[in-house]
Amino acid sequence: MYVKRMLKVVLFFILVSVAGSCIKREKIPHLVIWHWMVDRQSAFQALAEKYESETGVKVDFKLFFPPDIYSQKVIAAARAGNLPDIFGILGEKRMLASFVKAGHILDLTPSMKEDSDAWGKRFYPQTLRIVSFPPNNIYQVPSGIYGVPIDTTVLQFLYNKSLFREAGLDPQSPPKSFGDLISYAQQTKSKLGIDGFVCGWAESWLLNALATEWAINLMGEEKFLKTLKGDVSYTDEDWIKVFSLFAKLKESGILAPNITTMTNKEAEDAFAKSKAVFSFNGSWAVNVYRQLNPKLEYAFFPLPQVSSSFPIKVWGGAGSSFMVNAHSPYKDKAVKFLKWLTLPEQQKFLIEATNNLPAIKGCEDSLPPLLKSLTESFAILTHPDIWPYNEDSRVIEVMNRGLQQIVMGLKTPLEVAKEIQTTKERLSQR
Questions:
Q1: Which of 8, 162, 395, 399 is the most exposed, fewest CB within 10 Å of its CB?
Q2: How many domains does the chain fold into?
C-alpha cells in the first residue's frame, strides 16, 4: 500500500510538471540600457518609471563611470556577445563604424523613414548626421542611421557679465574679433587683477576644437578639409597663422598660468567663482554652473573671428546618443522606447531636469535664455563625425601636444607645424 501511495504521489507531480511545461509563459519585457551620464541618472530613472506605468515595459538604466571604464565595458561586452538592449558609444566615428560593421548595431533607417519620415523629421539634421553614414563614406559602412540623439552639444566662448560691468565694459557687447578678445581680457585683468581666459587645456580636445574653429574661419572649410585629405600641408602659411593665434594668446598675458595642466572641471570651477572673465566650454556648462554658482551672471558668444573672408563654424552636434543592439530579443521594443524618449514631452522634461539642449525641434519655447541663445548656432555646426575625411588620431595627438607647448612657450608655431606634417607624412607612407 505504501509503495502504491508513493507511486501515485510521484505520478501526480510528474503530470503537474508536464502540464506546467505545456503552459506558454510570456516573458515580461525588460529593457536594459547602459550609459555614462552621471548627471542624468535620476532623470532617466523618472522617465523609466513613467514609461513602465504607461506601457508595462520595465526599463533599467545602468550607469557606469568614468567614461573610459564605460567604454571598456561596452567593448568587452561586444566581444563577448552580451551587449544590453540599448547602449551608447563614446569615441571617434570610426569606433561607431567598427560596431556597425561587426553587426552589433541595428540600422534605424527604416524606423526613421516610416510614416513619411515621421521620426527622422523630429531631429535637428545636424544631430542626426553625427550618428549617420552617407553613401560611399570613408569607413565603408552601409549608408544609414545607426543611433538616436537625445541631446545637442555646442561649444562656444563665455564671458562673465558682472566682471565686464566692473571693468567698465558693456555687459551686452562681448568681443566679436580675436583682437577684441585680447583687448577686453587685458582690460579686465588690469582693472580687477583676475585671469583673462581660463579653459581646461589639460584635456587637449578642447584645444583641438578651438584650433579647428579658427582654422575654418581663417582658411575656409574647403582648404581645412583638404589638409585632412593630405592635399594641403600643415606647414602652409594659413596653418602657421592658426598656430600663431595660440602664441599671441600666451604673449598677451591673458591666459590662466596653469591653463595647460588644468582639467575642464577645474576650469569650470574657476569661471564659476569669477576668477576669469572668459572661457571656452560646452552647452553642458549651464548645468555645471547652476550647481557651482546659481548667481553667476554670464552669457555665451560666438567664436571671435580672425578673418572676414570665411564664415565661422561652431563645434557641436549630437551630444549623447543611444544605439540599439542588433541581436537584442527586444530590439523592436527598444526602438519603440527610443521613439517615446524623443517625443517633445520627454525632451522638455530632460531640458528642465538636466539643462541640456534638445535633440529635436519644437522645444525652443521650453529653453531657458542661456540655452536658447545657443540654438542660433545650430545652422553652422561642424564636427569630425560629419566630415568626409578624418585626421589620423596620432597626428591629432601631435597637434594637441604642440598647441600645449606653444602656450607654454616651449615651441614656436613653425616648429609645431613641421612636427605635425612630418608625422602625417610618415604615417601615410606605411
A1: 8
A2: 2
